[in-house]
Amino acid sequence: MHRRNQSGVMKTLSIDVRPATADDAADLSQVHRQAWQYCYSGLVPHKALSLMLEKRDETWWRKATQSSASVLVVDVGGVIAGYATLGLNRSNTLAYDGEIYEIYMRPQYQGVGLGHALFKECRRALASLCYRGLVVWCLEDCDGAVNFFRSNGGVDMVEGQEDFGSVSLKKLGFIWNA
After folding, report:
1. How far apart are CA 139 and CA 141, in angstroms?
2. How far apart are the first and last CA of the chain?
3. Does residue 9 sit within a domain?
4. Are 81 and 35 in contact (CB under 8 A)?
5. DSSP readout, 123-146?
6. pLDDT confidence bin for 172, thresholds 50/70/90
7. How many angstroms separate the CA atoms of 85 and 44, rounded?
8. Degrees, nearest 5: CA angle 161-154-67
9. What is the CATH number of the domain that holds 22?
């Protein structure tokens, strides 16, 4: 991507999908907060959402970048625009090896193709581990996520429930074969 600076000179804006580091923890916490507020306000009860946002502070993300699950970020000119967490499928009842646990973008970076690039890199990373197929879960009432996964070839084959305090919401499991 190219942009003109104030003097009219073209500059190249770098866009990279890369593994997250502990130095990204503060930015990851901000992306998580902004994306979750944007996606889930009015859908997830306020108290449950607030607790999740408090839990995912910089310390939590610093530990996450050093765990067995992979954390990838979309870095746009030094700004973390989004992230994904991925690894081994957590459900032993599904015949898919990989799972993308989360994929979120800051609201201002949604709709410009960065999420698709991140998703593609997640699939490549899981395939490099010889994982056959993958699953991604999202809330059924989160239209943006449902449309995103369908546009990336996912088929909603399984259903479940996610509890948020006293509220239980339906979730869909999108699958991709190898």
Report:
1. 5
2. 31
3. no
4. no
5. HHHHHHTT---EEEEEETT-HHHH
6. very high
7. 21
8. 65
9. 3.40.630.30
Residue 15's CB: how many other CB atoms inside 10 A? 15
Structural domain harbouring 164: 15-176
- Domain presence at residue 122: yes
DSSP character at residue 1: -
Q: What is the DSSP string of 18-70?
A: EE--GGGHHHHHHHHHHHHHHHHBTTB-HHHHHHHHHHSSHHHHHHHTTSSSE
Integer angstrom CA distances of residue 112 from 72, 76, 81, 108, 117: 18, 12, 11, 9, 10
Question: Which residues, including other chains, have CB under 8 Å from residue 33's CB and lie 6 or more apart?
Answer: 53, 56
Q: Which two tokens stand for residue 30?
A: 């901000």
pLDDT tens-digit readout, 27-55: 999 999 999 999 999 999 999 999 999 99
Is the pTM here over 0.85, yes or no?
yes
